[in-house]
Amino acid sequence: MKTCLVVDDSRVIRKVARRILENLQFEVSEANDGLEALKSCKEKMPSAILLDWNMPVMDGITFLRQLRKEDGGKAPVVVFCTTENDLAHITEALTEGASEYIMKPFDGEILEAKFSEVGLL
Amino acid sequence: MDDLIAEFLTETAESLEVVDSELVKFEANPTERKTLDNIFRLVHTVKGTCGFLGLSRLEAVAHAGETLLGRFRDGKLEVTPLAVTLVLHSIDRIKVILAGLEATGNEPDGDDHDLISQLEAMAEGQEVDLSTVKTVEVPDRPIGAEIDAAEITAPALGVGDIDPATGRALRPGEVSEAELEAAFAAADGPEDGLKPGDIDPATGRQLRPGEVSEADLEAAFAAAEAPDWMNDSAPEPVAEVKAEPVKAPEPVKAAAPVAPKTPAAPEPAPSLGGEDAQGIATTQSIRVSVDVLEGLMTLVSEMVLTRNQLLQISRNREDSAFATPLQRLSTLTGELQDSVMKTRMQPIGAAWKKLPRLVRDLSYELGKKIDLVMEGEGTELDRQVLELIRDPLTHMVRNSADHGLEGTQERIDLGKPANGTIKLAAFHEGGYIVIRIADNGRGLNTARIREKIIEKGLASRGEVEGMNDQQIHRFIFAPGFSTAAAVTNLSGRGVGMDVVRTNIEQIGGQIDLNSVAGQGTTFTIKIPLTLAIVSALIVGAGAQKFAVPQTSVMELVRTGQNAEHRIEKINDALVLRLRNKLLPLVQLGPTLQLEAAKDEDATFVMVIQVGERRYGLVVNDVLDTEEIVVKPLATILRDVDVFSGATILGDGSVVLILDPNAMSERAGNMLEEKAAEETEETITDAGSQKVAMLLFKAGNGAPKAVELEHITRLEHVESSQIEIMEGRAALQYRGKLMPILTVNSDFSGLISAHSDETHIQPLLVFTGEGYAMGLAVDEIVDVVEDHMTIELSADRPGVRGTAIVAGRACEILDVDYYHLRGLAEHQRQPAHSSEKAVA
Questions:
Q1: pTM for this one?
Q2: Are B647 and B718 members of one domain?
Q3: Does residue B827 share a domain with residue B705?
Q4: Any B CB within 8 A of A102 CB
Q5: Where in B698-768 does DSSP place strands (E)?
Q6: Are residues B63 and B149 in the same domain?
Q7: Which domain holds residue B547?
Q8: Which residues 8-47 of A are in CB contact (within 8 Å) with B?
Q9: Could you please report the per-residue DSSP string of B284-300?
């Protein structure tokens, strides 16, 4: 089964994402910030990561950079999902190796579409 | 309202509390980057989450606030107090909307244009007019109250119901698909670029929420340099990477109308397991509703009662096989009680969270620079208690800022540091938590309070004249007392300190103050750690039993006829002389007007400390110590202030719990006088009243004085009549031999005078129960009436100290000392009575 790690500092958003992803047959795990996410990835790389930008302790972009340096850290599909929707942010994310970029708020359809684009579904 | 909203409310409330205090920190130190980042992130998260829940009003406010904060963060705008105030306004507005949401489940109606336009203006660097922004009253949320999902949620689907969309039962914490969809449908998109609903020119269809317009994406991909590894693993040319996502939306667009709104997929079982594993891995704390904890507490309380009953039964049976397991049960119950108590404990910081913001607002409004120092935020106490002291604390901090501290200019003129300081400190002391609120302001205006006391008729002018400063200061706790010359909108409404005192006393706490003119005022609050279970002494008086909370009992003193400490009577008031101090007494039985108390002898004095005051409670018997569960009093008894509650003892009997605080009132003003004397480390029998004193000369040094009431007679006898032997002297007086003493035990003067037939020896005669004694003095000077205030303490036996009497420094005679010496002489007398040898 495909696994997806939801990284967001809001419990509400994690809950929403979990709900959608479980419907898409993902096994979902959660992390509250970049550091927690990194720890979780080191234990077991997920197939996909839904990543928030602004988080305490370690933000999304830092996490992404670190992740890509890890062994096997290039494998997971990283979908940035944040309200930071200006060009500079999107560019930065893609430069650092994000596979897709969606805006909050997202819904099931959007997520499904994006995931199928990157070949997860 | 669904539980997503409930979760959101809890999460947001937590975030906002942090924002409040962070902003104050930030204003104090605008260069602190980390603080600003924190604030920004929190507001940002609130905004991000709102989008998911369709809370458009909230999102708009959060968005405007975030934009402004973003400007600060990018260094494009300077942080001014005005700007912070504006941001604080927007946070208040968010709170109001949240409160409405919490109450009704829907965003309340309202227009935030006033606020948003100002926020935007400031972000644009334009002039801002704060007066156009409506200020809102932020309703208080109870401390630490979790939003109880069960309480506020009326979900369309209950947990376990089958969601028609997914075809499976909802798990706890889940929302039905339909609800989610509804939330999304209501959600507004972000402000920048294309909004959801706008037609994206690239795809020719409306943007759905969550989508980035194709043009944006394309531009981003064009600008983005794919990292090297991407090129390595994917051999496609860069252009390909660029192009692919641009095309990607096409199939989605086609699929969208066809795709079922909700994939009716059966819930895969493994994900359940996955969730569980996740729970174990990350969960170190869980959220429990306060009701559950309260319920637990009640159960433990009942258990303690039952244990007490069992112990009582076991105590009466010596050979009981239950004794050992019962002991174990008792220990476990104690531990259980402690553990449950811990779950209710919260750091007092929770009640202080709002204060930095409050002080900041006040300092702005009053034009005073105020530093708030907080110590011991981690000190824990029962959340029920915490809830009850939050308002009083807020009020007192407000008072300190408003009345206590001087204006900045005034402070500078006085040579004080320009910034006034309000210091909050909390620490544990015994079963109590002590909270101090200190300011370094002007101190209480004693003269004005005195005027006010008379004006309000709280005491007569005569009474007020006789009071010391502290007694006068305490009147600020009297009902309806407020000295504020100008009623500001902050305090000075006249519902001040008496309400504070009532609130604190209601929870068994005590409040006292200490004010020094020009240096500031310190309030000290002592509150019990918990209200539910207390250790108590069970005492008897008037054939009844009473419980006295142990925390206020300092010591027990055995008294009575043969005891070392005896109860004495001064000016109709009972006192106990204990370690050279006089302790005012209250008799429990007579005070409660118990008939049976009339025939009882007082056997114990409980020394009770209430605030700074100390008094003795006279009881007939001390029976036991017991952990008691405090039950509220029946309505019929609620007006009797000397009882604070009732409890059930181990033997099943119901006893009333005495309120040491209220009892102290019964000791009346005498208490105050004694307390004042005690602080001066002196003892004055009659306080500041005038006493008749006999002045005389004896021995060397200063003239001596003794209260006239102690002297039975003054005698002048011929020196030759005094018989002197072996360093002792005696006189045949009224058919008995009366010992004669001198102030320095030196009889040489008496011996030399003995041969002088004409010398007349003045004697002070003291009498006790069945005996008498004489004190030989050189000369009786005068009898005067004066205040007697002992100013220097004694340096040798027989002297109580030095006082100014009739303008002269006199040594005050310790009559008790001479009584004892006289008694000792009497006991020696019979053995020597036959040899009346003359030296």
A1: 0.46
A2: no
A3: yes
A4: yes
A5: 704-707, 713-718, 723-725, 728-733, 736-742, 760-768
A6: yes
A7: 534-672
A8: 9-13, 15-16, 19, 22-30, 32, 36
A9: S-----HHHHHHHHHHH
Q: How do residues B582-633 score in pLDDT, each as one tens digit? A: 788 888 888 888 777 677 777 888 888 776 677 888 888 888 888 887 777 7
Q: Cβ B52–A103 below 8 Å, yes or no?
A: no
Structure confidence at residue B76 (pLDDT): 78
- State pLDDT tens for residues B227-254: 555 554 444 444 444 444 444 444 444 4
Residue B601 burial (C-beta neighbours within 10 Å; 0-12, 13-18, 19+):
exposed
Looking at B672, B697, B723, which one is the last position of a domain?
Answer: B672
Nearest-angstrom CA–CA distance, B732 and B749: 19
User: In this model, does residue B449 exceed pLDDT 60?
Assistant: yes
- Are B554 and B693 contained in the same domain? no
Please name the helix (run of DSSP H) or strand (run of DSSP E) that holds residue B809, with its range, or none. Answer: strand B808-813
> What digits encode the pLDDT tens for the residues B261-276?
444 444 443 433 333 4
ipTM confidence score: 0.77
CATH for the A3-118 domain, from 3.40.50.2300, 3.10.105.10, 3.40.50.300, 1.10.10.10: 3.40.50.2300
Q: How remote is the C-alpha of A96 from its chain's centroid?
A: 13
Task: Say yes or no for a CB contact (<8 Å) between A15 and B271.
Answer: no
Specify the pLDDT at position A7: 92
Closest by Cα among A72, A16, A21 to A44: A72
Q: Which of B295-299, B421-425, B454-458, B514-518 has the lowest mean pLDDT?
A: B454-458
The neighbouring-strand residues paired with B802 are B792, B811
| CATH number, domain containing residue B500 | 3.30.565.10
Q: Over 60: is that where the pLDDT of A23 sits?
A: yes
Q: A90 and B212: CB-CB below 8 Å?
A: yes
Report if residue B681 sits inside a domain.
no
The CA radius of gyration of chain A, in Å to the nearest whole number, is: 13
**In this structure, are residues A56 and A9 in contact, taking their beta carbons and an 8 Å threshold?**
yes
Residue B684's identity, in one-letter code, is T
DSSP code of residue B746: -
* Residue showing tokens 């590894």: B229
B677 in a structural domain: no
Residue B168's pLDDT band, with cuts at 50, 70 and 90, is very low
The residue type at B318: E
Chain A CA closest to residue B261: A109
Residues B573 and B661 in one domain: yes
B217, B244 contact by CB (below 8 A)? no
Same domain, B212 and B267: yes
- Please state the domain count of chain B: 6
Same domain, B381 and B513: yes
Say yes or no for a CB contact (<8 Å) between A19 and B180. Answer: yes
Across the range A83-95, mean pLDDT stands at 79
Q: How far is A63 from chain B (nearest CA, A)?
A: 15
Closest CA to B438 of B550, B524, B375: B524
Task: Say if residue B521 is in the same domain as residue B373.
Answer: yes
Asked if residue B680 belongs to a domain, the reply is: no
Q: What percent of chain B has pLDDT over 70?
A: 71
Contact criterion met (CB < 8 Å) for B48 and A83: yes
In angstroms, what CA-CA distances link A58 with A38, A39, A54, A68, B12?
A: 10, 12, 8, 15, 20
Q: How far is B347 from chain A (nearest CA, A)?
A: 23
| Res B672: pLDDT | 46
Distance of CA B136 to the CA centre of its chain: 29
Task: Give the three-state DSSP class for B377.
Answer: coil
Domain boundaries, chain A: 3-118
Spell out the alpha helix ranges (H) of B283-382: 290-315, 323-344, 349-352, 355-366
User: What is the pLDDT confidence band of residue A6, given thresholds at 50, 70 and 90?
Assistant: very high
CA distance B747 to B825: 15
> Which strands sit side by side in the sheet containing B533-541, from one edge to the other?
B621-629, B533-541, B544-549, B654-658, B643-648
